[in-house]
Amino acid sequence: MKASIVVLPGDGIGPEVASAGVAVLRQVAQRFGHEFAFTEHAIGGDAIDRFGDPLPPETREALLAADAVLLGAVGGPKWSDPNASIRPEQGLLAMRKLLGVFANVRPLKLHPRTAALSPLKAERTKGVDLVFIRELTGGIYFGAKTRSDTDATDECRYSVEEIERVLRHAFDLARSRRRKVTSVDKANVLETSRLWRAVATRVAADYPDVELEHQLVDSMAMHLLTRPADYDVIVTENMFGDILTDEASVLAGSLGLSPSASIGGPGAGVYEPIHGSAPDIAGQSLANPLGTILSAAMLLRHSLGLAQEAAVVEAAVDQVLEHANLTRDLGGSATTHAVTRAVLDAFTAK
Amino acid sequence: MKASIVVLPGDGIGPEVASAGVAVLRQVAQRFGHEFAFTEHAIGGDAIDRFGDPLPPETREALLAADAVLLGAVGGPKWSDPNASIRPEQGLLAMRKLLGVFANVRPLKLHPRTAALSPLKAERTKGVDLVFIRELTGGIYFGAKTRSDTDATDECRYSVEEIERVLRHAFDLARSRRRKVTSVDKANVLETSRLWRAVATRVAADYPDVELEHQLVDSMAMHLLTRPADYDVIVTENMFGDILTDEASVLAGSLGLSPSASIGGPGAGVYEPIHGSAPDIAGQSLANPLGTILSAAMLLRHSLGLAQEAAVVEAAVDQVLEHANLTRDLGGSATTHAVTRAVLDAFTAK
Ligand SMILES: CC(C)[C@H](C(=O)O)[C@@H](O)C(=O)O
Ligand SMILES: CC(C)[C@H](C(=O)O)[C@@H](O)C(=O)O
């Protein structure tokens, strides 16, 4: 197949991990006879420096024409003044809105070799295999804001339609897994959460084969630590999802390993590792490329419909996790390049 | 001294743990020659059942006249329909607003005997000794709400004054501790958070001897698990505090052990264990009374200025934690009564 893939290297270690992802996708193309065209575009701090705009028009245009997007990371101390009028994160938020990618998908699974690095005791993380679906284009992130000398406000708004589509996404996903959806809200306090819960209950009626459970966000923050293995698909609104997915990501033992997909829009999905731009180690070939490579696998599966190719990439990563020297964050001493090379080698060996 | 203490037993295990707290306070009064007058009043589900109002006028009146308030727990499945027009939590929220208790204080310390119950590995929780200050009377909890057939909204609003007073509280507390304040916000996205950060920075200038660090809420959710021992005083807004304090409370190994104080208003402070109403074990003398007893110690210290008495209660609890049979949640088989009795005995032994 032919596919046009936009690569957004971004800031810090973004360019290094993005190029690891591209290397793997190139190899997939070659091995399976696909034609992937890659074009690089600016986003975030890099785009501010070069174009004075965290999501320049030229990038927007490319995003709208793409079949899929591979993103490195965005942000860094250089642009981190929250009162600055232009900030790297605005590029991320604008991109999510532009592409309408309302479902941020983050699978969480523990690999035996990295489980040892989890801050949680092994008996707690045993059997963890869950997926977060975070609503990504609504809520307080995108609501009206005001600021005066004495006050500030942020509005959280959700429509039935926004809630329903992300819940259907969660229920559909649960059908291909263990058929359990946990919907997280703060329905004892928030009106948007009461609407969320009502919609969840209504949507659940269309999925009699899937169990729906409601959890309050504060309880969920506890249960993620006390019994993470009890969850299958967890779905929640934008801000709660931001906090809970980051909390959960720690359980895996390494942030460097976790991929994400932002999908659901009419066009391209966005695939990126969940780690940040890590400016302290940028440019030194110390970054773990596996989160990006696993994101590339999600890209193959979700945006290009290439499930077999995705599985081959994931198997190669598994093999590397088992046998290869890993990057520093995983207790190894290998460079970004060496780990990427190990994945490519494991891949051709198949 | 004379003090009038309002007791709000509430729901589920609330009455059992509240009466343990009262027993300890009675003993303090006797031992140190104080006169504490206790009056019980209704709140939450119990108040809904008896008066059709989660915070009846009679309770409000008593609260306004009290020197301090000891609360059990509020809520339960019986009243948990989020769409009901009257809910137990409304009693809590109305009480916080009525008393103006804007600072919710939650110390987190690990006791050697309970540390083993933490889901975190011992090397991570070593040396943890932090205090959360959660803003409690502002933010999205109390903002304007709307609901239509197609939409819902919640407004998060903060004034400079609301932010400043809770931050000063945090800085003052830090001065009596390790002189480090971590202020948590989402300043890369929210306008209220940018105001929060600006006020924090300005207030910090009055405390040159205290270090101020800013953290984004999502990063904080991770750092609490990866390096909890690095924190001293953590201060944040209402909703973030709700989520992060519950996440943090798990680290201690038992929810049943953690006290809280809600203070800062012109009148009485409210003291309560952080665990909920646990209706599944209500009425069976299975509840852990230590969280409430430690809350009573905070009451003595913060509302009555009885630091020595507070220290005696805390020492008695320490002794029980070391030597006594504990409740089920701590791996023991003792009843609520027996553990309370053990505290009273340890206390007189001093
Ligand atoms: C950078 C920031 C705006 C962003 C978010 O909060 O959505 C990030 O934390 C994430 O989770 O992708
Ligand atoms: C019951 C609820 C309204 C309350 C809150 O969120 O403030 C509770 O979770 C708490 O933390 O005291």
Automatic annotation (TrEMBL), chains A, B:
Q: Per its Swiss-Prot or TrEMBL entry, what cofactor is needed?
A: Mn(2+); Mg(2+)
Binding residues for NAD(+): 76-89, 276-288
Where is the site Important for catalysis? 141, 186
Q: Name one GO biological process term.
A: L-leucine biosynthetic process
Where does it localize?
Cytoplasm
* Family annotation (SUPFAM superfamilies): Isocitrate/Isopropylmalate dehydrogenase-like
Among the GO molecular function terms of this UniProt record, one is: NAD binding
The answer to whether keyword Glycoprotein applies is: no
For the ligand (substrate), the binding residues are 96, 106, 134, 218
Q: Which residues form the Isopropylmalate dehydrogenase-like domain?
A: 4-343
A matching Pfam family: Iso_dh
Give EC number(s), comma-separated: 1.1.1.85
Do the record's keywords include Magnesium?
Answer: yes
**Top-rank EC class of the record's enzyme:** oxidoreductase
What binding details are noted for the cofactor?
Binds 1 Mg(2+) or Mn(2+) ion per subunit.
Q: Which residues bind Mg(2+)?
A: 218, 242, 246
Reactions catalysed, semicolon-separated, are: (2R,3S)-3-isopropylmalate + NAD(+) = 4-methyl-2-oxopentanoate + CO2 + NADH
By its UniProt entry, which NCBIfam families does this protein fall under?
leuB
* Record HAMAP family: LeuB_type1
Q: Which family does it belong to?
A: Belongs to the isocitrate and isopropylmalate dehydrogenases family. LeuB type 1 subfamily.
Subunit composition and interactions = Homodimer.
Name by which UniProt lists this protein? 3-isopropylmalate dehydrogenase
Q: Source taxonomy lineage?
A: Bacteria, Pseudomonadati, Pseudomonadota, Gammaproteobacteria, Lysobacterales
Gene (UniProt): leuB
